Amino acid sequence: MNNGLYQNKYRIASARWQNWDYRWNAAYFITGNTKNRVHYFGEIVNKKMQLSNIGVIADIFWHEIKNHAKHVELGAFVVMPNHLHGILILNDPNNFNKNKNNDLDVETRHTLSLESERRTIGQKRFQNQGKNSVSSIIGSYKSAISKHAHRLGFEFDWQGRFHDHVIRDKEEYQRIHNYIINNPEKWEDDKFYDKP
Fold this sequence. Notes:
The protein is of the alpha+beta class. It has four helices and eight strands; from the N terminus they run E-E-E-E-E-H-E-E-H-H-E-H. A four-stranded antiparallel sheet has the order 6-7-3-8, sandwiched between helices. The protein has a two-stranded antiparallel ribbon with strand order 1-2. Strands 4-5 form a two-stranded antiparallel ribbon.
């Protein structure tokens, strides 16, 4: 059944961790890119980010996430010319110490539920992102930026997906935090660097 087809169309396999529920308490390193790496968010001038109007929207709306999603904390964050990085922390006291062997399961809304028991968490996630999951939070964030940019008459588009990484320990958290904070100073060494 896993032939890469969904509704008779080929789809790209998920890059997400297949045995992890993205509603679980953890710190997540998030990267979102603009479509075709267009510099919609602004430019780096003298190693400092100069936000465009869309960049200001992206910055403000990131800090609003905690007002719209439950049990969310925000770590380091930066808007770059063609991408953004942030640390999103889910900290739901009801999910404390939950792991893949407990009853926190992704519900399905399809007739495929009968096969649900044989599927990984990642396969179930494809059917339903779940409330207050990393995907639903970041999806809402990206959507809000797009809607406001278009409402104000700005051309803007996201790359279709975003990248996430589950941060596994304090050392990794500190390394990623430092990377995010120092990203504008090291723009020319960034893998997303390109001249406008």
